[in-house]
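The instructor's notes for this session suggest beginning with a concrete chain rather than abstract definitions. Hand out the sequence below and ask the class to guess, before any prediction is shown, which regions might be ordered.
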Amino acid sequence: MNTFFLCIAIGLCLLMALPLVRCLFGPTVLDRLIGVNAIGSKTVVLLLLIGVLYERVDMFVDIALAYAFLNFVAVIAASRYFHKRKGLYEESFMD
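After discussion, reveal the predicted structure:
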């Protein structure tokens, strides 16, 4: 059974090459952010597979949840930064 999960983990690492290409050669900033988010999502699954391989799923679930939260916050923060930096919209505050 460990061989099966190891093959799945190796296949997932190979699949992570596609979003990596999007991150490196994406034509826009949005494409790069989507690539980073996809790599982060696949990394969460990879962490869970590593937990199954080491028979310590309880510990790796906590690590995967923390990584998923950090990935989500980082992508949201970067997208807001680049959205404001390019001046795509102006915030208006109503008093």
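Then share the key points. The CA atoms of residues 20 and 93 lie 39 Å apart. Residues 2-85 form one domain.
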